[in-house]
Design goal:
- This protein is an alpha+beta fold.
- Strands 1, 2, 3, 4 and 5 form a five-stranded antiparallel beta sheet that branches.
- It is built from five helices and five strands.
- It has helices at residues 2-18, 24-39, 44-49, 56-64, 68-77; strands at residues 81-84, 89-90, 96-109, 116-131, 134-138.
């Protein structure tokens, strides 16, 4: 009877632990993957759901440059897929994080000349900010000096 109690107790503990909320690191990494897959598949309305308010103008600008031939090329080549390269780094105050994603089958449009280029694989370093209980990606307009604007 003692072994039966131990088995039942073990199953109960396992079930309770598996139902707990995601850790901050898991939340951050899932947000990064969701954002990248939306962003690199030109699904900017979904990408906006995972973005900071300061990122919205950049996403709107990119969306305005999408043409039907870009969507046709994306459909032909297949969807981009994202994965985490290294574990996320969270600041000590747990308000900011950095995640490096690898995107396979990425398709990038140059907004200046409208030409599209396919990459079999690329890396994107994302900055995430915690707003309330939600982690959001900051993807601002790239500056000439390579630095992003501040929120």
């Amino acid at each position: 009877m003692n072994k039966l109690h131990t088995l039942i107790y073990s199953v109960l503990i396992f079930t309770c632990l598996s139902c707990q909320q995601q850790t901050p690191q898991t939340q951050i990494e899932q947000t990064a993957i969701d954002f990248c897959e939306a962003f690199y598949n030109f699904n900017y309305p979904v990408a906006e759901e995972w973005s900071t308010p300061s990122s919205l103008s950049y996403l709107s600008f990119l969306a305005s440059n999408i043409q039907q031939n870009h969507l046709d090329q994306l459909k032909t080549q297949g969807a981009a897929k994202a994965s985490i390269i290294t574990s996320s780094e969270i600041t000590p105050d747990s308000e900011m994080a950095t995640v490096i994603c690898q995107i396979k089958n990425a398709f990038i449009i140059n907004p200046i000349n409208g030409k599209a280029e396919r990459f079999s694989s690329l890396q994107d370093t994302l900055q995430l900010i915690k707003e309330g209980n939600k982690w959001l990606v900051r993807k601002d307009i790239p500056q000439q000096n390579g630095k992003q604007s501040h929120d």
